[in-house]
Amino acid sequence: MTTNRFATRLNSFASRPQAEWPDLVGKPSVLQMAARAAKVAGLTDLDLNFPDHVDEKPAEMARKLGDLGLSVNGFAMRYYSNPAFKLGAFTNPDPAVRREAIDLTKAGIDAAREAGTNLMTLWLGQDGFDYAFQTDYAALWQHEIDGIREVAAHDPDCQISLEYKPNEPRSYSLMPDAATTLLAIREIGLPNLGVTLDFAHVLYADEQPAFAAALVARHSKLLGVHLNDGYAKRDDGLMVGAVHTLQTIELLRQIRRDGYDGAIYFDTFPDMTGLDPVHECEVNIATVKRMLRVVERLEKDNRLSTAVDRQDAVASQAIIQEAMLGPDS
């Protein structure tokens, strides 16, 4: 697994704006946030939201980010430009709105390619429902499948990664968990589709992150890993390892074994409580590096594979705690 590529959420760097830009009026620009992100030791990449973050030619934007020492890991679609998307993007009851969402996504894919990346992440949070008797579920699912299929076919060389989430903003999302997302990918049947695992989303989908990753590797491919943490009730966006340290280490071990070679992306929310985003991101990077060293030790410890083969939870916990915390004397 590639361990030297770390990407992050650009909007995090709008946190505590007065500390960085004392005379700022309004919100910081994309390039102002990127310049602040470039101060993070060890950060290599950014993801850009489309269309929100793309206010000039994508190639020119990528060049400016390169001048800051950062690469574009990928683009991520956002469906906020039309208020009608609140009732659905690919699943909106109005065919004209569905067409607008699909065409916007195709434009985003083109922009991503112009910026030099071949990764587009789709979080279809607006596609779902809120009430019983609100929708025809078969029709809603078909709209979703048709929309994803069309945008994935638009550029076969661009990897389209589906990021699932149980709910929010809709009460029920059409892509709420790993299994449902994999069913959609299987039904669509295009080779450039895959999955992004967001740690907090996986937790509150009531999934074990490493198991979700194993399912994705078995039935599709893992195209993105968003690390953060939370209390499994909502998308908390806490720092990596703050709550579920063991589960994070197990996920890193699993994706390493499965051959994941993409960036580790930090989808955390320092801006929610005014944390220093530069220091927060540096701590996340340092935490993951420490966790990967634990994974290295575990992979060299034959006792763990023996314990796992026996499903001996007591032995495996003892080995992992020793790898993390050292011997008891």
From TrEMBL:
<protein>
    <recommendedName>
        <fullName>Xylose isomerase</fullName>
        <ecNumber>5.3.1.5</ecNumber>
    </recommendedName>
</protein>
<keyword id="KW-0963">Cytoplasm</keyword>
<dbReference type="InterPro" id="IPR050337">
    <property type="entry name" value="L-rhamnose_isomerase"/>
</dbReference>
<dbReference type="GO" id="GO:0042732">
    <property type="term" value="P:D-xylose metabolic process"/>
</dbReference>
<feature type="domain" description="Xylose isomerase-like TIM barrel">
    <location>
        <begin position="49"/>
        <end position="270"/>
    </location>
</feature>
<comment type="subunit">
    <text>Homotetramer.</text>
</comment>
<keyword id="KW-0859">Xylose metabolism</keyword>
<keyword id="KW-0119">Carbohydrate metabolism</keyword>
<keyword id="KW-0464">Manganese</keyword>
<dbReference type="InterPro" id="IPR001998">
    <property type="entry name" value="Xylose_isomerase"/>
</dbReference>
<keyword id="KW-0479">Metal-binding</keyword>
<dbReference type="GO" id="GO:0009045">
    <property type="term" value="F:xylose isomerase activity"/>
</dbReference>
<dbReference type="GO" id="GO:0005737">
    <property type="term" value="C:cytoplasm"/>
</dbReference>
<dbReference type="InterPro" id="IPR013022">
    <property type="entry name" value="Xyl_isomerase-like_TIM-brl"/>
</dbReference>
<keyword id="KW-0413">Isomerase</keyword>
<dbReference type="InterPro" id="IPR036237">
    <property type="entry name" value="Xyl_isomerase-like_sf"/>
</dbReference>
<comment type="similarity">
    <text>Belongs to the xylose isomerase family.</text>
</comment>
<dbReference type="GO" id="GO:0046872">
    <property type="term" value="F:metal ion binding"/>
</dbReference>
<dbReference type="Pfam" id="PF01261">
    <property type="entry name" value="AP_endonuc_2"/>
</dbReference>
